[in-house]
Amino acid sequence: MGYDAIMSLGVPATGATLSHAHFLNHHFAAHASALPLFPATLPKHILIKPSRLRRTRAAVLSSAAGVGGAVLQDAAATALVVGGAYALVSTFDNLTRRNIIEQTLSRKLVHILSGLLFLASWPIFSASTGARYFASVVPSLNCLRLVINGLSLTTDEGLIKSVSRQGKPEELLRGPLYYVLVLILCAIVFWRESPVGMISLAMMCGGDGIADIMGRRFGSVKIPYNPQKSWAGSISMFLFGFLVSIGMLYYFAVLGYIQLEWMQTLERVALVSFVATLIESLPTTGIVDDNISVPLASMVTSLLVFGY
User: Fold this and answer.
1) Where are the chain's structural domains?
2) What does the pLDDT look like over 190-211, one tens digit per residue?
3) Mean predicted confidence (pLDDT) in 103-114
4) Which of 14, 69, 112, 138 is the most buried (most CB within 10 A)?
5) Max CA-CA distance within the chain?
């Protein structure tokens, strides 16, 4: 103890204690002046180099910029596809209104082109996980439009005339509505990573759409078990469904979204096309709409043969 401490404790200040106290005061005073308030160097695990800080900050900024860039890309792609879809439907509305093409042909051309162009637009969206939801905005808007007009909350004569069979608003709540719901389902569930959605849309849009056009023009010979369907329509569906499916798969494969072994793929797509054509030919139109049965059969068969 120092001198002051000895005195504060009431210890008698003898000669020995005073001598010892002076020694302690001198010893601690000499070493205390040499001790730094903080250590000169920090342990290595505490130190963060400036270069590492710069790299971390750059990575954070790059990630934020990437997310922002993806959102902007998806928003722009959505606007582009919405504009294209509106232009497509408006074009056929005008052609039908002017009696340049008949209502039935207009409806089927919209059926074929809108779905296939929607499918072909998927690569313009970003690689983010939210891209599929941006893409689904387009058919979702059409879905809302169909519901509003189908419930007669508003009346768009051009829309009703171009996508319905008999020009009745309530028809929009059946086949056309099922059609856009399938587009939404394929975009969100399957997207660009699976051939299932691509084949299902190709069969529903390309195969079934062409079957109706060809069947009406060359379908004099009917299928024995369904007088409402023709051999010309069914053969056309099989061929065009197969060709459009292969074309779409090749399109996405070239862009690097899927990898396929093509000999097996040809066999698998032929099987899917056959099953979808068989389902479409059955006398079940009054029970299940083709826009449900054809894509559903295509999805199930594609999942079985492709596995993903």
Assistant:
1) 68-190, 194-308
2) 999 999 999 999 999 999 999 9
3) 89
4) 138
5) 134
